Amino acid sequence: MADVAPMDSTSPLYVAALDALSVESADQDAASPPPLWNSGAARPEPTPPERMRPPLARALPRLDHDAQPGLDKATAQKMRRGKIRPQRRLDLHGLTQDEARRALTAFLRAAQEAGCRDILVITGKGVKKDGSIGVLRARTPGWLNAPENRGRIVAFSYAAPKDGGEGALYIRLKKASA
Are the C-beta atoms of residues 137 and 92 closer than 8 Å to each other? Predict the structure, then answer.
């Protein structure tokens, strides 16, 4: 093992080490960490936590049949009345929940990449004898708000009766990015 020379008492490192050891000064708060800088030097400014973290993606508002924050009133009204014709359709009848979710995600991606703006997704009314609604009809709004899909969607609403009524959804997609 090599010999270690004693530290010079005038060294800045030595002074900083002494400052770190003198934690019990009367004017220092017991909860604050010991200073690691020279007593004569200015205290370094702490970096705010928001500067240290990467910027987070802006959270998109949750969409619902009645809440369509990305759509103007006139377009929302046309959509609800069935005046906007869907460019593509997806029928989820007969699929399991897992199959339907995968099919919906793939369909949204493919439709957006193809430049479609308005699509129709048919879930089926699925009204049961006890008055509850079908699983696919109940789950589809949640799937549309899932992170993998929400970024593609501007709005959705129930379809007009001629296109399936409450058993189908009109969906307005965002324009495909170039």
Answer: no
